[in-house]
Amino acid sequence: MIVVLKVRNYIAGIVMLMSIPSAFAQDLVKYVQPMAGTAAATTPSALKHGLAADTRFANTIPAVTAPFAMTQWTPQTQDGETKCVPPYYYKDNTFTGLRGSHWLSGSCTQDYGSFTVMPITGSLKTLNYGTEFNHSDELSTPYLYRLKLQKYQVQAAVSATTRCAMMQFTMDKADSLYLLVTPNSDYHEGFIRVDNKSGEIYGYNPAHRIYQGWGKSAGFSGFFVIRFERSLGNTGTFSGDKVFNVDSIKNGVHAGAYAGFKMNKGEKLTIRIGTSFTSLEGARKNLEGEIPGFNFEQMVAANKAVWEKALGQIKVTTANEQDKRIFYTSLYHAMQQPRLFNDVDGKYPRFSGDYQTETLDKGNYYDDFSMWDIYRAEIPLFEILNPPLVNNLARSLILKGKQGGWMPIFPCWNSYTSEMIGDHTTSVISSAYLKGFTDFDADEAYQLLRHNAFEIPANRADYVEGKGRRALDSYLKYKYIPLEDSVLDAFHKMEQVSRTLEYAYDDYALAQFAKSLKKSADYAALARRAKYYANVFDTSTGFMRGKHADGSWISDFDPDKKATYITEGTARQYTFYVPHDVSGLAKLMGGAGKLEQALDSLFTKGEYWHGNEPGHQIPFMYNYSPSPWKTQAAVRNILATEYSDGPGGLGGNDDAGQMSAWYVFASLGFYPVNPVSGEYLLCSPLFDKAVINLQNNSKFEIICHKTSPKSIYIHQVKLNGKTMPNDFINYHNIMSGGKLEIYLQDKPDHHWANAPMYQPKGM
């Protein structure tokens, strides 16, 4: 991860780091393929279960950034800030600028507070200035993007820090160069000014909410300040094709500002850009703190060093170069969000506020938690790789709960959204505390989470705004959410069975937190509620099924057809969402053997959908059955068929890194089916060796011993030299450092870890 250097010379600090021998001096960044996920997926499950071809995109962008940065910098082929439309598609061939973006990586949300810088040559043009380009003219890395614009005979390049960027434009001919700067507001809002005296172009783009409170102000803006290495030449503002001889413009349609320069062939123009969510002054402070000079080559080298250090936390050994590309690309994607929101001086916009600014006492403040997704594997990954980051994430969530009065469900654009279902902030904070993350007030955190789990907003307006769990009253009354409750005050309406299942998991998570704090009455109540998943399991069919308030099952039932009471999937797929009590689910089905048969039916029917997160734990659930070897086969098949290193290499929305984090875990040989438990289900590693460099200066090694190159089945596991019969390891095993040796053979070992005593116990 990047350590935010609160010193004047950011680059000097990174250059100093470059001189220190460490795990990141390995040239790992060359394996990262930022274009992965920018084209439509062609994986088997995407083709079967995805929607129309245009919606099968992973929705990642070729971001030049730093890990968990405030702003990502991307080539732009799609104008505006439209839901489910990322700034860049690989299929496009028209370039319209370099964007300072706050796109939620791999999501179906929308950009906000963004702006774009477009270079053109010749005569000034403020409309229809996009130019065709070829991918052969692109260089895309995590630390540098460069594109040769043949029409304009200019090369555009960008590199970045956590809050800032540097762009450089190189002339391939002598000509006039114009830089067009546009805030990208779909609401035709925003402000921009050219200040010839200070040599700056600066402005802001107000952010708006979506989902609950859709269209309302988010209470902050995306601010930017651009500084030029030479005096501004011909300047002005514009709206559409109308050009104005004034220095500022506000709230225009396609409004912006321009600066023109006379340039010689081979001459370079370099600009520095600071961004902020608090103010223009905050953007200036960030710029001064992170990029005080105009040395572009040094900037590129510094950012490359940041990524080498971050990627170097895991070193994998294999002769398969494609597997390395997929692995390090996945690690890069997993480090896009949550997003840093505070300035170098600790100021940040108040959560769910009205342009109010707060100041941190310590650490950093983060937002853009795609919580329904990232609680599963992305945040658990950084519980291992970056404990200080997770402490910051937990403190950030607690601040949101304190400032807004309710713990947010899915906090993005620093606002309540109640997007998706469940209340998985509970999982993240409970998991962190139970693993020993204590750099936050546990009692304060618990009370906020308890408020969500037990209380309903007294003020209806608060509920409509997105505060509190959706349909909690029905859940508590019936011990499931009946079909009669259509959950109207939510973007995801109905989905009653899925909500019941996810609330049961969250209640389990909070029960463990309550138990650790010795809150016995709460623990008992929540532990009972954690079993509510059983109330929507129909023993006559063997599936989770929609249920009426009178206790009767929905009559029209097909487990393989999408239904309104299931979130983004089918009853067969969602039946397996009981991550906290798989053995309890197996008992409902008739025993572990029946669980195995149910899993078999999902895979043999081709109903497993890797492109949607609720299924991510399913392949590992054979580890709760008499045949753990089937997990090894299923996971290896998914690694081989659902991921690649090309633009279409992800089988569905990456959702802020969850799809990618799954790959990181599964390829290493273990996965957190139930993140709160601290247990990781074993599978066969993809690599000959992997070394996780932990921040406590110890290492956790995973070594594969194979009887042949085709070996994928486990027949023995050793932990620190001692034979381990279990099909799982725990958080302490990893964080203590040591060596996990996994012995693989060509055929399944039907006896390895095939009894309940060797498997996780669940509740």
Automatic annotation (TrEMBL):
Any Pfam family hit: Glyco_hydro_92
Residue ranges of domain Glycosyl hydrolase family 92 N-terminal in the record: 31-276
Cofactor list: Ca(2+)
Keyword Signal: yes
InterPro entries: 6-hairpin_glycosidase_sf (IPR008928), GH-type_carb-bd (IPR014718), GH92_a_mannosidase_put (IPR005887), GH92_N (IPR041371), Glyco_hydro_92 (IPR012939), PNGase (IPR050883)
Stretches that traverse the bilayer: none
Signal peptide: 1-25
Domain Glycosyl hydrolase family: 282-745
Keywords for the protein's UniProt record, in alphabetical order: Calcium, Signal
PANTHER family, alphabetized: PEPTIDE N-GLYCANASE PNGASE -RELATED (PTHR12143), PUTATIVE-RELATED (PTHR12143:SF43)
Subunit composition and interactions: Monomer.
Protein name: Alpha-1,2-mannosidase
Species annotation: Mucilaginibacter dorajii
